[in-house]
Design a protein that fits this description.
Length: 418
């Protein structure tokens, strides 16, 4: 599959290994490992790594998978690298250099190089920095395959930053694993430590783009890093994938908060005096105390925000923007007497509702034998509720268990409409 690599390359593959990869790349890697190679000339560890990497890339990086010469890294690097969809989104955040200057882009944590390959495309000079020598050699090869001219530097991010000249954009995706391989989430616990590097980063670049763990509280991240101008919470398939922060050198009107799911955006501009950074799930203190008890009936509509909205916690703004009412402060489900086609999440038509009273349950759920069950701020897990209701999984019916603002527990039986 890969040609043109010199024998001294870490990734040199002989013809037998290339042919084995080409012939077996659609097969189960585990089964191939058990069978072993058919000849002594086949480098099985390399072959299995390339087959597994290509199979992941088919879904995660389709444009890369179409290119026969790409070399794929071990599983952990493939797991951690950005998808094509999220890399393209980051490219849209990267400020374009002027046509006359073209600018300089630096990625201080290059990794497999997916983000770098997209974000740097508009720049005249592209610098990829990575401390792992094998990833550096892999990047040199892959960038040539992609037709991307880039300077590949094998160095620690901190060391290179100290000696680096002024540039337009710096991108960092700090490693979120410690020396023992355990996951870390806090900014100060990642490598490199962006909090320590921030003064120097600001000296060296006009714009800094950070990719952080989606598990991190974005309010704390903004609090820890002075000068954040944009927060982007990116979800794919309603799963929160990335937390992106943009720090600029020019004054801004406020903090831009953008929630993205499969390309659909919901954005807010938070100005001074409105930002709330301590406790709770909401942007503003105290507002949840004013949520009234909501009556919901058959024929009403129920709305479930997407993962990015849930992560952002901007529920009051969603309510105001789309004219929907939150069921209670902690349910994060919304209702209205009309459909809202552009709501950023799933939409349901309510067919009936009931309390957890045995007689009500028996009456309302009598015709329901199969349903998709979800719970929001409810004393049971979805599986516990399913067992109690004795209902099979699946079908077209959706049952939401939640707690209303008066503390009562309620079930809503719905049909999905969007």
């Amino acid at each position: 599959m890969t040609q043109g690599l010199a024998p001294e390359s870490l990734f040199f593959m002989n013809e037998a290994t290339r042919r084995f990869i080409q012939e077996h790349r659609m097969e189960d890697v585990r089964q191939l490992a058990l069978k072993g190679g058919k000849g002594a000339d086949i480098d099985m560890p390399m072959a299995l790594q390339q087959i597994a990497g290509w199979q992941t890339a088919r879904k995660k990086l389709p444009a890369w998978a179409e290119m026969e010469d790409i070399i794929y890294p071990p599983h952990l690097n493939m797991e951690q690298c950005s998808s094509e969809e999220t890399a393209l989104y980051k490219e849209s955040l990267t400020p374009c250099p002027s046509p006359s200057e073209r600018g300089v882009f630096v990625d201080l944590t290059g990794g497999f190089g997916v983000d770098f390959s997209y974000m740097s495309r508009a720049f005249e000079r592209r610098i990829y920095v990575e401390r792992n020598p094998e990833l550096c050699e892999m990047a040199r090869h892959n960038f040539q395959c992609l037709g991307l001219e880039a300077e590949v530097v094998c160095a620690e991010a901190e060391d290179y930053l100290k000696e680096m000249a002024l540039v337009d954009v710096i991108y960092l995706d700090p490693a979120r694993r410690d020396q023992q391989g355990s996951r870390t989430y806090g900014i100060a616990d990642c490598s490199p430590n962006v909090i320590e590097l921030l003064p120097l980063l600001r000296e060296k670049a006009q714009c800094i783009i950070l990719k952080l763990s989606p598990m991190l509280d974005w309010r704390k991240a903004v609090s820890d890093l002075e000068g954040v101008q944009e927060v982007h919470i990116v979800s794919v398939g309603n799963e929160c994938k990335e937390l992106l922060l943009v720090l600029g050198s020019k004054p801004s009107e406020g903090l831009l908060l953008v929630c993205v799911n499969d390309g659909r955006e919901f954005s807010l501009l938070l100005k001074e005096g409105t930002f709330y950074s301590q406790g709770g799930n909401d942007l503003f203190p105290g507002w949840e105390c004013f949520i009234p008890k909501v009556g919901i009936f058959a024929g009403n509509y129920l709305f479930e925000p997407n993962a990015s909205i849930m992560k952002a916690g901007c529920f009051r703004e969603v309510s105001q923007t789309f004219g929907v009412q939150q069921l209670s402060a902690n349910s994060h489900l919304f209702v209205a007497d009309h459909d809202v086609a552009d709501f950023p999440g799933r939409r349901f038509l309510v067919e009936s509702s009931c309390s957890m009273n045995k007689q009500e349950l028996k009456s309302v759920l009598k015709p329901v034998t199969q349903a998709n069950i979800a719970v929001r701020n409810f004393p049971m897990t979805a599986e516990m509720l399913r067992k109690k209701l004795k209902i099979k999984d699946g079908g077209d019916v959706f049952i939401f268990g939640t707690t209303l603002s008066d503390g009562s527990h309620q079930l809503f039986i719905c049909r999905k409409i969007g």
